[in-house]
Structure formats: C-alpha cells, structure tokens
Amino acid sequence: MVLAFVAVAMVTATAASAAGYAAARASLVEETQRRAVETVRDQVTRLAPETAYPPDQQALDRLRTSLGPDAMVTFEGLTSASGSTLGLITDDLRARVARDDGFAVQRVADDAGPRLVLGTPVLLTDVDGSRRDSGVDVYVVHDLAGTEAQLDRWTRVVVLTIAGALPLAVALALVVSRSVLRPVQRLAHSATELAEGNLGVRLTPSGRDELADLVATFNDTAAALERSVGELRRREAEARRFVADVSHELRTPIMALTSIIEVLRADAAGRSDQDLELATMAVDRTRRLARLAEDLLELSRLDAGVGDLRPEHVDVVHVVTGTVRTRGWADVAVAAAGPVPARVDVRRVDLVVANLVGNALRHGAPPVVVEVRAEPDHVVVGVTDHGPGLPAGTDPELLFGRFAKGDPSRTSSDGSGLGLAIARVNARLHGGDVTAHDDPGGGARFELRLPRRPEVSADREDDREDDDAPA
Amino acid sequence: MSRILLIEDDHAVRVGLGTALGRYGHDVAAAASGEEGLRLHREHAAELVLLDLMLPGMDGFEVCRRIRGAGTVPIVMLTARGDDVDVVSGLEAGADDYVVKPVEPRVVDARIRAVLRRAAPAASAAAGRTTAWGDLVLDRAAMTVTRAGRPVAMTPTELRLLLELSASPGQVLSRQQLLESVWEHSYLGDSRLVDNGVQRLRAKIEPDPARPVLIQTVRGFGYRFGPV
Prior knowledge:
Order of helices and strands of chain B: EHEHEHEHEHEEEEHEHHEE
Structural class of chain A: alpha+beta
Number of helices of chain B: 8
CATH architecture of the largest domain in chain A: 2-Layer Sandwich
Structural class of chain B: alpha/beta
CATH topology of the largest domain in chain A: Heat Shock Protein 90
CATH superfamily of the largest domain in chain A: Histidine kinase-like ATPase, C-terminal domain
Pfam families (chain A): HAMP (PF00672), HATPase_c (PF02518), HisKA (PF00512)
Strand order of the largest sheet of chain B: 2-1-3-4-5
Catalytic activity (chain A): ATP + protein L-histidine = ADP + protein N-phospho-L-histidine
Number of helices of chain A: 10
CATH architecture of the largest domain in chain B: 3-Layer(aba) Sandwich
CATH superfamily of the largest domain in chain B: Response regulator
Transmembrane segments (chain A): 157-176
Largest sheet of chain B: 5 strands, parallel
Order of helices and strands of chain A: HHEEHEEEHHHEHEEHEEHEEH
CATH topology of the largest domain in chain B: Rossmann fold
Strand content of chain A: 15-25%
Helix content of chain B: 40-55%
CATH class of the largest domain in chain B: Alpha Beta
Shape of chain A: rod-shaped
Number of strands of chain B: 12
Shape of chain B: globular
Oligomer: heterodimer
Domain HAMP (chain A): 178-230
Protein name (chain A): histidine kinase
C-alpha cells in the first residue's frame, strides 16, 4: 500500500514535468517559426516596391542580398542564390509557393542541424489597390540551431526538476501513507480482533476526517455487538441454569416417587389383587413419567447447548451389539461385515440406536435388523423392520418433530414422542444425521449416519491422556 | 446386611430410598445435611456412603472430600443434575461411583453390592498370594498393600483396580474392560471413572505420580500394568 502511494507520486511528478516540457517545447517552436515568417514578410514588403518589373538578374541579386545569407530569388528562368543550404529547398516547396499566394513553410533537418525553409511569392499592389503575383518567388532558409540549444537547456532543467522533485514526492507519499494508512491498518487489526471474539476492542478517534467517522462507526458497531452478544450469553446462561434447576426440581420428586411406589407395590403383593393392580399401574406410570422427564430434560439440555460430545475410539459394531444385548432384545439381529472403528460419543450412539430399534419394535413388525456399515468417512447404522413401512402420505421429516406421532391411531401409552427428535439432535451433535424412508423390501428404514472422526468438539479423551506420561 | 449412610436433603427421597434399601437388606442410617452426615459417619462408621451432591449448607463435594480424607469408605454419589461437570467434580472429590436421579432402588442396590464386592479377595488370589514391585507389596489374599513396609490405605475401588491391572502385567486393558471388571458397569459405563480411579491409584503407589512407572497409559487403548 505504501509502495503504491510512492509509485503514484513518482508517476505524477514525472508526468507533470514531461507534460510541461512538451507544452513549452511546442510553443517555442511555434514562436520561432512565426517570427521567421514575420521577418521575411516584412523584408519582402519593404523591398518589393524598390524592384523594377520585370526584374533582371541584377535586380534579383540585389533583392536576394537584402534577404540574408541563405536565400534564393527566382523569376521565370532567372535564379539568384547564395549559401550552402539551398539544396534544402525542395521541388515540393516550390510547387506550393507557385500554387498559393501565401507562405509555404517546411521544417527540415540534416547533419548540420534543424532548419526552417520559407517560401513566398512577391505580390505587387496596383494603383487601384488590387494585388497580383509579380512572378518573383523568394526562398529563405532559417537556421534553428539557436532554438534547438534553447530546447536542450530546457530539457536539462526538466530532468533536473524531476530528479529533484522525485525524492520530495516519495517523501511526501510516505508521510501521507503513514497518516492515512496507519489508522486504516489499526482499523483492520481491530476488526480482526473483533471477529476473533474480543468484543471489548475500541479505537481512539483522531481528527475530523472521513477516517475519524469510520472509527466512530466502528466503535459504535463494536459496542452494539458487545451488547447483543452479552445479552445472548446472559439468556443462554439463564436457559442453562433453568434446565439445571428444572432438572433437579423434577428429578427429586420423581426419585422419591420411584422409591416409595416400589415399596408400596411390594406391600400390595400381600393384599388384594386390586391393590396389586393399582400399585403395579402406579409403578408403570411413574417409570413413564421418569422417562418423559428425562427425554424433555435431554432435549432442553441439547437446546441450551449444554450437551457436549465425548468421542472415544470404539468399534461401532461392538457398541450397537451392546445396545441390543443390554436392552434384552434377543430377536433383533445385528449385521456387520466386520469391525467399524470410529470416534463417537458411545453414550449418545447407544441412545440413538436404542431409540431407533425401540421404535422399530413398537411400530414396525419383526424381524428388526440393525446393519452397521463402514463408508470411507462415515459409519452408517441402518435399522430396518418388516412392518407396513412409514405411515402413507406423511413427510418422513415430520417424524422427527417433537411429540410427533407417526401413527395417529397409536395410543399415547408408548414412548414419549420425543425419541426421534432426541436421536436427530444427538446425531447432528456428531455432525451426522438420522433419516427415515421406506425400505425397498417393505417396512421402514431409519438410518443413522455419523462422521467417523467428528471435527466438532475437542479431543477430550486425548486431552485426558495428555495428563499422564505417555507410555 | 451392610451399613449404608444415606445423605440426602429431600425428605421424601430420604425416607423412600431409605425404606426401599432397607427392604433389600441394608441397614440404612439417613442424614438430611452434610454436617449431620459427617457426624453420623463418625459415630458409627458406615460401610458405604450414598451421597447427594446438592445439599444445603455444606455441599456434597465438601462432604465427599472430608469423608475421603478420613478414610477409605466407598462413596456413591447421587447426582440430580444432567450437568457433566458434577460427575467430574464428584469423582475428583473422591467418589467411587455415581448414579443419576431418578433411579430405581433395585439399581441403587445393585450398585451398592458391586462396590462392596470390590473389597472381597480376587478370584485370582490363589495364583500368588503376594507380589512385590520395588518397595510396593500387594497381598492378594489379605487384600492389603504396603509400601516400604507401611500399609497404604486403599478404597475398595482402588484396590480392585490394582488387582485387575496387576493380574495381567504387560497386557493392555481397555477402559471398557476395566469398567466391566472393576465397576461391574455395562460397556456403556462412564470411562471417566476409570481415568479418575487410575489417577488416584497412581497417587498412592507411584513413586512419582506425574511420571508413572507402574501403570502406563496406552494412548487410545487404555492402561497397562508393568514396572519398566
């Protein structure tokens, strides 16, 4: 940027000098030519009446002598010439003089230097005032050496001027660029800081130019940003606190209920069938309430951004097999060609797979097959059932909504209606997704797709190991 | 019949869980605050402490630190928040295990029994009564550890972890394997339990816990026992 400033200054200084030089040179040449023409015209006007017509050789010689050292006078066949430069008078020039009444001017240059050749017919004025061509043509060669020397002096002056002005221009450019660019650089630096999250960054305005306005605008923007981000963070923290509070407030009574009802049911076993039935129902509903609360809390935590990913290196086939085994789903088959190593949050993957399989068992028909497949960058867990497939005419995406009921005829007794929503949020936390579609073989297929190495979230497992001395 | 100390501020949970655990054959003493819990623990030492983390007054972490500072009784945390930081702080304060509320009494009972089983001699005890590594001596039958002749106080979890690791020296045990063998958790257990347990064990048996020579971390796999 500074270089550009300097370059512009240099070009400007040079161009200004060069343009001035060219203009001066043109006007000097013009002036010289005008004066030469003037002189010849005066001489001819003065001498013409003294010459007898038609002139003889003697008269022509006289006329020629008074015109100067390098001159030529012609009249029909007669010619009077002197000087060594008359070869410069071309036929073309003579033709032009013969044709016109005015001056013909030609600039020529040879080894001896630049010269101006002037030619004009001598006009006679009759008693009635009319002018006619006398037939006498006058040619004068004017030496331009003096003019040329003048131009040379000018050129030197111009070159010296440029040489002197350039450093000055460069110095000026540096000063200007510093006073203009430094604040711009500071502004750019501050903007970068702002973008990196340092919302407290401000600039000190100086002067009252456009740059100062820009600085003021920057400060206002940064302040506004800091305010709104602060507000956002405050709300986020509030939301997290709320979820934590709700979590505690909800779980504690449910915990008490769970314990007390279990005792009551054990006691009811010794009493009437009706007592036992009621107690069993209470145990069941308490469990469902607990699950609904857990699902709601899980979703709220994820919404509040509390859910963090704890990825570990695992074989996803092992995880999925474990999910199915620990849930006691003996008739669910896990199909895999071999181990599928990946870095995933085991607890979340278990949750998602349990959700999908549980769903398939509730809404689909057996056999339910869980297929684990490795792709170069992804691991795919497909859960397929052999039921009627997805509810006809329903957008599969709607199934992932909260409290979505895939089958309207379904009673409210199964699931919380949050399972698929939670599954999806968990998958997306990994940078993956869960999708639903009809399987070509009939039935519904839910597919969990996760990147094998999630880029989000820090390597917590590795961080932990860094605390120890590596083996 | 094991003596359990339940420290829980919510009256209904304290009574409900206390009663239910009583039905499972435990002798439960209940305290409504940390201070009361510490007093009860001093008066008749419990075999296991069931500790709620959210307590009025002295919080569960402080109670945990004090109980741990005074002895090796196993501590199982009752956490109500879904906040993971709770679990980490609790483990760092010296807890051996944790359950998340709401939890059914039979699950708590199972967890209590698993923790208490850790104090029982290992099945492999017959393979060799005592083993020594430098000045560290492990007696598998008596379930004691001495270092330079002085007994090292170990919680049942730390002792079981040392037994499992030292049973197969040189072999890498994954966190999942250790979770299943020491904590009796399913494969889904929290691997932070293992990391925390290893750290506490190192603090007791390694000459320099910052540069462990007995228990090595094998990056990405787990831990390996073997003096190098």
